[in-house]
Amino acid sequence: MASRFDELGTGLLDHVQADPRNEAVTSAMTPLVVARLGKLLPRYIEMLLDPALTRTQHAERALQLGRLHAALGVPANGVTATMSWLYQALAVMSQQIPGRLSQRQMYLDIVLQRIEVDLESQQEAAELLRQDIYGRLRDLALSLHPLRRRIDILDAVVAAITDWPFIAFGAVYGKAPDGAFTVEAESDAHRAWFEKHPDQKIHGKRLTPDSLHPVAEAWVSGEPVDIPLIDGQTDQGPAWAVTLGNAGIRSMVALPVLDATGRILSMIKLYGRLPNLFRTTHMRETGEALSLLVSRAIERTHDSDTAMISADDRKTWRERLFNGGLRMFMQPIVDLASGACTKFEALARIELADGRIISPGQFLRALNEQELDHLFVESLNHSLDAMLEFQSKGFKFDISVNLPPSTLRKPACIDWIRTALAAHRIDGARLTLELLEDQGFGGDDELGARDAARLLELGVHLALDDLGAGYGSLIRLRNLPFDILKIDQSLVRGISASDRRTMPLVEALVQMGRKLGIKVTIEGLETQELIDLARSMGAHHGQGYGIAPPMPQSAVLPWLVRFASRPAPPWSQASGSARSPQTEQHDNADDRVTALAGLRSV
Prior knowledge:
Number of helices: 24
Number of domains: 3
Helix content: 40-55%
Distance between the termini: 99 Å
Shape: elongated
CATH topology of the largest domain: TIM Barrel
Number of strands: 15
């Protein structure tokens, strides 16, 4: 019987290839795959007929095979028909076995039982694979739900999908306004592959559907585009496909992520280790569900977090942040009544190896929550270091540091702040933490209020930054214990005393803060006129380029020396006449206070 295994294997392979139910799979079989299968089938038949085979061993092998068949898209009725053909072939061959009829029937009964075990185990494996993938989708959906930043969403998606069965690596692409494709997030294996094969990159390129690249085709059609078979054994197809095939990548798919209007938000690109992987029913359904999950997650993000950042830039910026590239720039905050510089806001920058400075408007969106935590702790310690340095030179002032709401929500945040203050022996009252007004608390302001209240126990001040930037300003102001209010520069940029709409709006915000007992700072004071207007409205403090731009730490001391020695003339009549009656009753300063008229020259 053993001499007939090769014959049975050849016949079984012929049957599989001839059965139209298997066409989707057999059409993706290269000559190399067919030859390999021709060697594997006789061994599987031998295993199936081995007298020493236990049920546990058999079930384990059949589960492996069933998982593979399900991933390839082999239909259950095709597997059943194949095993039925094998049983019939064995029944015919059993007629040639010497012995009584009852012995041959007993032999066939055993074979039939094993075939039934095989079929049951393969069906179980197929169901387990489907449950595995759907479970991973469910877990991904749960992990995406609280995320409100595009970059966190894309990182979570890539981390999840590249761990899925039979997936080699993946990435998420976007398209820049100039039409060039941009890698926004990628797995380590994806990055490693394209570092090894830079000529295969589409990042930074403008592709058309004529390029035969699925990402380009899917971006035009808005529909998933896949390559069911990447054959590295021939020179057919694009060079990039041949290279992938030679490395064992057998399939590829581009999944568009669409918003509610059908506009493409991004493109998920996956590479598979099996042919036909993305054409099976459950994988097509998985792809649709994945695209929908990502679409809904992105649409929950804030508008300021939707811009694309390339994965290369993110990698460079992160490496510099964690390896000595953090720089703190300082911008003065001035008391508008006395003209004194009372505080500096510490603003993080990243200095690249070539000396270029990356602003927070660029790199903050590139950092995930853990990296934002690291940035906050490092920024806080750098800023407190600066306070001590300037204090040793005779200049004592307070410091203000930005605090991401996601960091405030971390249980360890209070300890980070307490430890930093204790290590520098600085009173918490000299530290202001600014919460960005355009970032939320994941929809739970009650918890956010408790987190913020814990800060006050340390004696620090809490500022609502960028009031007017657009995220539930009044509700946030009502719910959280702010004692400083900063009016966003976008509200005051370019206004004048004759502006009949913006002036009353800004003045109303100032007076609201005063009635709540909250100190008010107006940002974006770029001209002397704006400085005068801010004081006339009753704002307590001012900040902006009209006073001084953010400056490197090395430039602070020279600026302080110049600022301390500046002329200090009294307020002019023009400044006094610009004050409104409403402001007069809230401001106790008189006309003898020092002026800010010479600040721009400092």
